Structure prediction request, 400 residues.
Amino acid sequence: MKFEFSENMKNIKPSEIRALLKYIHMPGMISFGGGLPNPETFPDEELKNILNDIMENYAASALQYGQTDGLPELKEQLTGYLKADENISVSPENIMITTGSQQALYALPIVFANRGDYGIIEAPTYVGMISSLNANGIKSTSIDLDENGMKTDELEDRLKTMRSMNIKPKFIYTIPTFQNPAGYTMPLDRRKHLLELAEQYNIPIIEDNPYGDLRYSGKKLPTLKSMDNNGLVTYLGTFSKIMAPGLRTGFTVSQPEVLTEFNKLKQALDLATDSLSQYIAYEYIRKGIIYKQIPKTIELYKKKRDIMLEALDDDMKNATWSRPDGGMFLWVQLPKEMNALKMLERAIANKVAYVTGSAFYHNDPELNTMRLNFTYSGDEEIKDGIKRLAKTIEEEKASL
Ligand code: PMP
Prediction:
C-alpha cells in the first residue's frame, strides 16, 4: 500500500537525541549525548519489595483501569510531598497524574493555545516542548537565556511589542531550575519579575521542574508555583529523576479549571496513567523511600558534575561552559565560527558523542552550542570523554 501521510506529520522532526542514542552502544564510545539518569540511582531492591506488597494487597486495583485524574491515594501523598519539598500548598483537586511530565508538555499547549497561536519559550529549551509545539501547530517566540536563566527584561520588551501588534501569547514555558539543556538557574529577583509580568499581561506560566530535587551546590530557591498567589502557574513534576523514568509517572499541579480541560484531552490520549506505576509511586512516598533515595542520587551526581567541571577546567581551551548547581546537564559554547553539528562526525570518529545545541531551539538555532550530560557515564569515562572532546574541538578549529 502507498500511504498518504498528513500534512501535520511534516512538521514533526525526528528527535536528534533519539537518533544519537544508537552511538551510546557503539564499542568504546563515550556518550554525553543522552539525558538518561544513571541506573545506579534506581531503587531496585526497594521497588521489588513495593511490587510484592502491591501484588499482595492491591492487585485488583493496581491491574485495573484507573481514574483519568490519577490514583486518589497518590494525589493525597503528593500534597504532602509538594508541601515538604517545595513549599507548594495544594489539595488533591489541584493535581493530575500524568504519563511522564512529557504528557503535560504535549497537552498543555493544546489546552491554552489554538493552532497558529504563540507560546513564549526559552532559547534554548527542552526538546519535548519543541516537539509538542510542532505536533500541535503552535508557534513560539523565544527569549534568550543568560547564566541567570530567562532574560525577563527581554521578555518584558517582547510582551510590549507583541501587545502593540495585537498578538497575545497564550502561555510562557520555563524551566527555571537547572534548565535543560543549559543548566542555568533563575535567581529570585527574576522569578518575581516573571510572575509580575505574567500577572500584568494575564498569561499562564508552565513551570517545568524535573530537576529541582537534584541540587549539588548553592541555596535552594522557591519554585514559581510556591510564590504564585494568583493561580498563574501550572507546575510540572516527575518521578523520572527521583525514582525511575521507565515507570512514566509525572504530575501536573494547577487550578481545577485547567485540569478539567486537561482531563478531557487525557481521556483521548491514554484514559489514565498506568495504575501499577501509580501504586508504586504512592508507596515510594508513603514509605519515605523517596526522602532516602534523593540524597543518594545527589551524592552520585554531585561527584560526576565536579569531575566533569574539573576535566573541562583542565583540558578545554576553545570553549566556555555553564557551571550548574544541579540537574543533569551543562551547556558548552564554542567560538561563533564553529558548528557543533558539522563537528559531530569528527567527535564520533574520536569516540565521543554529545547533543548539538541546535536541537534545543525552536527558532534561530545557535550552531556553536552543545549539551553535555554528566550523570550517565562512569567517572573515568567523563575524564577521558572530555579529553576526546577537547581534542575534537581543537582539530575542528584548526581545520576551519
Ligand atoms: N521536561 C524536562 C525539562 C525534561 O528534561 C524531561 C526529561 N528529560 C521531561 C520534561 C520529561 O520527563 P518525563 O516525561 O520522563 O517526566
Q: What stands out?
A: The chain has two domains: 9-41+291-399, 44-287. The first strand starts at residue 30 and ends at 31.
